[in-house]
Design goal:
Rossmann fold; single chain; alpha+beta; 4-stranded mixed β-sheet
Length: about 180
C-alpha cells in the first residue's frame, strides 16, 4: 500500500507505527500525516528510524568494505542525505511528528545490537534491510563483490566475541506522539 495515500479509514487505529519504513519514503511529511489521519483521536503514532550514519556500525563496516574494494567510491552524499537519514537528527524527527499534527511528541534514543557470525550474514542483513546499500553496490562486478564479502568476513572475525558472533551497535530513534482528541 502506498504510505503517501493509505487505503484505510480516518480515525481507525489506536496505534499506527512504522519500523524503519517512513524514513525511506520520498515525502516523509505526507506519509506522517497519513499515519496521523488513520490514528483515532487520542491514539499514538510510533516511528523508528536510524541515527546518523557515523553512529551505525553496520553501515561503517559495509562502507569500509566497499571503499577497500572500490577506492573511488565517493561516500554517502550529505546534502541532501539519503532518504533514510533525513530524520537521523532526533530534533528533526520530533519536529516532523509535531508538524504532522501530533502532540506530546517525544523522541527516545536507543541502540539496536544485531550480531553476525560471518560477513555473508552481515551482507545479507544489510542488503535486505533497505534499498540504499543495494544501490551502492549495483555496479560492482562479481570479483569486487567477492572481495567485499571477504573484507566483511575479516571485520566480523575481528569483532567476534567468545561466542563467535560480532555484535554491532546502531543508533535508533523512536518517535512517539499522540493525535489530539
Amino acid at each position: 500500500m502506498d504510505c503517501h495515500a493509505l487505503e484505510l479509514p480516518d480515525d481507525a487505529f489506536d496505534v499506527v507505527g512504522s519500523q524503519f519504513g517512513v524514513m525511506l519514503v520520498p515525502d516523509q511529511p505526507r506519509a506522517l500525516r497519513e499515519m496521523v489521519r488513520v490514528a483515532r483521536p487520542g491514539g499514538r503514532v510510533v516511528l523508528t528510524a536510524y541515527g546518523a550514519p557515523a553512529e551505525l556500525d553496520f553501515l561503517g563496516c559495509f562502507i569500509g568494505a566497499l571503499t577497500a574494494v572500490h577506492p573511488d567510491f565517493p561516500g554517502l552524499p550529505d546534502d541532501p542525505p539519503p532518504l533514510e537519514f533525513q530524520v537521523a537528527d532526533p530534533e528533526v524527527l520530533r519536529r516532523r511528528l509535531a508538524e504532522a499534527g501530533l502532540v506530546d511528541v517525544r523522541v527516545v534514543r536507543t541502540t539496536e545490537r544485531p550480531s553476525f557470525a560471518s560477513g555473508r550474514e552481515l551482507w545479507d542483513w544489510t542488503l535486505s534491510g533497505n534499498p540504499i546499500p543495494g544501490m551502492l553496490i549495483a555496479d560492482l562486478g562479481e570479483e569486487r563483490r567477492a572481495a567485499m564479502l571477504a573484507m566483511l568476513d575479516g571485520m566480523v572475525r575481528e569483532r567476534a566475541g567468545a561466542g563467535g558472533r560480532a555484535v554491532l551497535a546502531n543508533a535508533v530513534h523512536i518517535g512517539v506522539g499522540t493525535k489530539p482528541a
